[in-house]
Amino acid sequence: xxxxxxxxxxxxxxxxxxxxxxxxxxxxxxxxxxxxxxxxxxxxxxxxxxxxxxxxxxxxxxxxxxxxxxxxxxxxxxxxxxxxxxxxxxxxxxxxxxxxxxxxxxxxxxxxxxxx
Amino acid sequence: xxxxxxxxxxxxxxxxxxxxxxxxxxxxxxxxxxxxxxxxxxxxxxxxxxxxxxxxxxxxxxxxxxxxxxxxxxxxxxxxxxxxxxxxxxxxxxxxxxxxxxxxxxxxxxxxxx
Lengths: 116, 114
Fold this sequence. Notes:
heterodimer, A: 116 residues, mainly beta, six-stranded mixed β-sheet, four-stranded antiparallel β-sheet, 12 strands, globular, B: 114 residues, seven-stranded mixed β-sheet
């Protein structure tokens, strides 16, 4: 079985400052890793994903995440945040393989609050 | 192209009643998954259907059921509603049933049980 822990429930940060949202996972098998963003009163949007290959993955809006197998982490970073980045961020895992159903297991979420 | 659509947007029901939530996937997507998101928590997996067959079920009681139709749309049914069923119910569609494919989420149905 897999589980996800997001270490911070809320992260307040000033505009243009860097930010890191932390995510650790637990699994006895290899996993796929995802970050989703949820804006108020909306569904989830995929921000970025790691399936294989380069451990550093990037999104089109400046976020990046690095898969660290030894530390079982997939932290999300952005060097300079904007007010519009204020949202709920969810880390998720799924397990590939013969029993793979596409089931996503989500963390509790981290609220990113960008202040002017 | 239209994204994943869900209906209704909001719903208020009384304890003990039954509810049906509906989801239309993105055109061409054959997999539909349902998630429950209780306020302040991450989404919890309920079901996945692929090609009209159940492919996965989360840790939810038998009061929860679902089905997928030939046009790949889906319904989630919940019987004997409890106060704890109050949540945002999210539907996600994907081209295939495996996790390497991105899941596209709809805006959700907000269910309130009084």
